[in-house]
Specification:
single chain; Rossmann fold; 7 helices; 45% helix; 16% strand; binds NADP nicotinamide-adenine-dinucleotide phosphate
Length: 240
């Protein structure tokens, strides 16, 4: 088992990509703290993780609330003692042209998709730096690399996610801590269904495709600097 006895804190782990990453890590022996807002989805994932013989710690958390983030990190540390791997995956996508975006929508996009990651990183870093060991995997997007129409707020957040990742690698290399940003194109999940209900997703990636790459990153030597990975399916749709 590649992650036997390790611990991971994964946000947005109730469904979609986060749930798949949680299950992929659990299959490799990793204990998982999983955070999201919907208790039923968290509990469902926790049951499936526990069935794999590792500990699942479901924590109800709204990542736009700083007090929820503090409680999530402290509950995880109280239970597991330390965090080996942080996966900042929680996110939402609401697409609109810039001229229709309200300040509240802009701020919400940044809060959910990147400010939460910054705060979770700050929460786990002291322990990782003391232990001189740690891995941070940020689930970004192809929109963090290139602009797409109606995705200015989401894209600004994901560009910031990539920048945060690169800064972390420059600042933390002496601590044996590595950060990675994973930038998928279209993945067939609730997020993409809500944001793009009319797009044909039959050729899009599945959450398991992203989980497979996240597992690769989680097990990569910390001597390897892999800042950003871009992923898409070889399909006719250039946005997929
Ligand atoms: N699907 C795609 O095409 C695609 C492509 C590139 C990147 N991504 C990225 O992949 C990540 C996961 O998305 P997904 O496609 O798997 O979507 P999803 O199935 O809708 O899952 C999103 C997860 O994030 C959680 N979440 C959302 N807002 C939250 C909040 N305020 N507080 C706590 N948790 C919150 C959700 O749980 P609750 O609603 O219960 O809180 C859910 O568990 C996102 O960062 C997204 O930007 C997705």
């Amino acid at each position: 088992m590649k992650l036997k006895g390790k611990t991971a804190l994964i946000t947005g782990a109730g469904r979609g990509i986060g749930r798949s990453i949680a299950l992929a890590f659990a299959r490799e022996g990793c204990h998982i703290a999983l955070a999201a807002r919907t208790p039923t989805e968290l509990d469902h994932t926790a049951v499936d993780i526990s069935a794999l013989g590792v500990t699942a710690l479901p924590i109800v958390c709204d990542v736009t609330r700083t007090e929820d983030i503090s409680r999530t990190v402290s509950t995880t540390l109280d239970t597991f003692g330390h965090v080996d791997i942080l996966v900042n995956n929680a996110g939402e996508a609401r697409f609109k042209p810039v001229y229709q975006l309200s300040l509240e929508e802009w701020t919400q996009a940044l809060n959910v998709n990147v400010t939460s990651a910054f705060l979770f990183v700050q929460g786990v870093l002291p322990g990782m730096m003391t232990r001189r060991s740690g891995r941070i995997i940020n689930i970004s997007s192809v929109t963090g690399i290139k602009a797409l129409p109606e995705q200015a707020a989401y894209g600004a957040a994901k560009h910031a996610m990539n920048s945060l990742t690169k800064s972390l690698n420059l600042e933390l290399r002496d601590y044996n801590i590595a950060a990675h940003a994973l930038c998928p194109g279209g993945v067939d999940t609730k997020l993409s269904q809500d944001a793009m209900p009319h797009r044909d997703k039959s050729e899009w990636m599945q959450p398991e495709d992203i989980a497979h790459t996240a597992l690769y990153l989680a097990t990569l030597s910390s001597h390897m600097a892999v800042d950003i990975i871009s992923m898409r399916r070889f399909a006719g749709d250039p946005l997929a």
